From TrEMBL:
Function: Has high formaldehyde dehydrogenase activity in the presence of glutathione and catalyzes the oxidation of normal alcohols in a reaction that is not GSH-dependent. In addition, hemithiolacetals other than those formed from GSH, including omega-thiol fatty acids, also are substrates. Also acts as a S-nitroso-glutathione reductase by catalyzing the NADH-dependent reduction of S-nitrosoglutathione.
Protein species of origin: Thioclava kandeliae
NCBIfam families noted in UniProt: adh_III_F_hyde
PANTHER family: ALCOHOL DEHYDROGENASE, ALCOHOL DEHYDROGENASE CLASS-3
Assigned EC number: 1.1.1.284
PROSITE patterns: ADH_ZINC
Residues covered by the Enoyl reductase (ER) domain: 12-374
Identification of the protein by name: S-(hydroxymethyl)glutathione dehydrogenase
SUPFAM superfamilies tied to this protein: GroES-like, NAD(P)-binding Rossmann-fold domains
Length: 376
């Protein structure tokens, strides 16, 4: 069939809207009509050329929601008409990682996914002249239709609006999951969140749900503070507008009573900047502070700190998709949204047509959007 897509032809160039060919789903695969997709900073990161796994030409996008149109041979858990959220972290429930119960990082199809291919080693997308187009994170939601493995689709309730729940496909789950699954934040905790964008705001929302007392937001853009306050931020620090270091500022903010050491119980990097990751670790409390890396850093970037920071009890962790097991947890996030337990609507600051997708990335780079969503 033919479908419309925003194609990344080359690194650093705007996406091009064009008709592409999409093959029918093969064994274990499902054809989806994508109804809406969010624009995550990771899409911009890959388009920039900084992603070691970035491939071109490809169809980016990994934060979608849609409807099953057709299922391939052997598909048993989905049928045409089902509403689904694509999962860049699948859940096969059979691989050693899934069986371990210790991680959400299913390994069933990770190798081919990283090569922009379906599990059989080929692509379903082609240019009209037959040139293969790579898949992206196994999802490619910047196409009106896509083909995905059954194990990478979460079936969700049918009364949930696509243009809102697409955000659960990455940002919402990553941010809230980082707090609940990865950090395991307790009631009364203190926390610092670096980067108050589409991920950081969801970390803040997760911290409020977990019952954190002090939630310090850090961003270079003052405009991000207003929305963060609405989601539960109690203190704001703009590192470019303080006298000393951001680490010292946070340590001072958290000194209380006879605890004059200071530092937060939990910190989160949602910027992708390795210097910020270091600050996030070093502003966490001696003896027990836990710092979670969420941000994705460019090819070649490395983190560093004095080992003494870890010797003295701080823990450095990372999280992918908030530690969530997609087919199990994503339908629950959709229920939480529909039941009013989590908020999504205020964070979707822009709704665009596919033709306007490059404008959506401009808004992201200018710091003017939280989430822009393309509605097909
Ligand atoms: P975003 O662009 O919406 O937000 C980033 C925020 O960080 C912005 O508000 C920006 O002003 C702020 N910022 C940038 N540099 C800063 C600095 N030096 N100090 C303080 N603030 C700074 O991006 P997003 O969609 O929220 O994504 C955030 C990061 O999370 C990206 O690196 C993205 O690739 C990554 N990510 C990771 C996962 C995962 O599973 N680990 C999932 C989604 C996104
Ligand atoms: N391809 C990059 C890494 C990108 C990355 O870390 N992706 C996150 C999700 S970001 C979503 O917005 C992730 O889930 N990683 C786990 C995985 O298996 O990819 C690189 O550096 O090679
Ligand atoms: Zn993402």
């Amino acid at each position: 069939m033919r479908t419309r897509a925003a194609v990344a032809l080359e690194a650093g160039k705007p996406l091009e809207i064009m008709e592409v060919e999409l093959d029918a789903p093969k064994k274990g695969e499902v054809l989806i009509e994508i109804k809406a997709t969010g624009l995550c900073h990771t899409d911009a990161f890959t388009l920039s050329g900084a992603d070691p796994e970035g491939l071109f030409p490809s169809i980016l996008g990994h934060e979608g929601a849609g409807v099953v149109i057709e299922v391939g041979e052997g598909v048993t858990t989905l049928k045409p008409g089902d509403h689904v959220i694509p999962l860049y972290t699948p859940e096969c429930r059979e691989c050693p990682s899934c069986r371990s119960g210790k991680t959400n990082l299913c390994t069933a199809i990770r190798n081919t996914q990283g090569q922009g291919l379906m599990p059989d080693g080929t692509t379903r997308f082609h240019m009209l002249d037959g040139t293969p187009i790579y898949h992206y994170m196994g999802c490619s939601t910047f196409a009106n239709h896509t083909v995905m493995p059954e194990i990478a689709l979460a079936k969700v309730r049918e009364d949930a609006p696509f243009e809102k729940i697409c955000y659960i496909g990455c940002g919402v789950t990553t941010g809230i999951g980082a707090v609940i699954n990865t950090a395991g934040v307790e009631i009364g905790s203190t926390a610092a969140v670096f980067g108050l964008g589409g991920i950081g705001l969801n970390v803040i929302q997760g911290l409020r749900m977990a019952g954190a007392d002090m939630i310090i937001g850090v961003d270079l853009n003052d405009d991000k503070a207003e929305m963060a306050k609405k989601f539960g931020m109690t203190h704001f620090v703009n590192p470019s507008k303080i006298e000393g270091s951001v680490v010292q500022e946070i340590v001072n903010l958290t000194k209380k009573g006879d605890d004059q050491i200071g530092g937060v119980d939990y910190s989160f990097d949602a910027t992708g900047n390795v210097k910020v990751m270091r600050d996030a670790l070093e502003c966490s409390h001696r003896g027990w502070g836990v710092s979670v890396i969420i941000g994705v850093a460019p090819a070649g970037a490395e983190i560093s700190t004095r080992p003494f920071q870890l010797v003295t009890g701080r823990v450095w962790k990372g999280t992918a998709f908030g530690g969530a097991k997609g087919r199990t947890d994503v339908p629950k996030f959709v229920d939480w949204y529909m039941d009013g337990k989590i908020e999504i609507d205020p964070m979707i600051t822009h709704e665009l047509a596919l033709e306007e997708i490059n404008h959506g990335f401009d808004l992201m780079h200018e710091g003017k959007s939280i989430r822009a969503v393309v509605k097909y």
